[in-house]
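To fix ideas, we quote verbatim a fold written out as tokens:
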Amino acid sequence: MNTDPIADYLTRIRNAVRANHKVVEIPASKLKKEMTKILFDQGYILSYKFEDSDAQGSIKIALKYDKVTKDSVIKDLQRISKPGLRKYAGATELPRILNGLGIAIVSTSHGVMTSKQARKENVGGEVICYVY
């Protein structure tokens, strides 16, 4: 049993990036699927595929690397709100990561989105993680 599935999701991606893997497979959930869509829309991953082969299903993520330097596009993933200590931010207090170069993924009442989108829609929520 995994007590923090989001931390596991981020750790699997982080480990795959450090090992220079092309693809990483992660057990699926609704929140993880939404986070994967955000990472794809923001250009942090190359592609993704949702597979519903068993009861839970899985997510296959193709990681994105720079063509010239062969470095990963994802430099770091940080879990912010943990099960033991939730972090919430109002619409005006939402974080800006590296002066707008990174993203913060936020779970709001309007769904999972980046902090920039949440600020635009004037909603706050739980700050799940930072990606840069």
Q: What stands out?
A: The first strand starts at residue 23 and ends at 27.
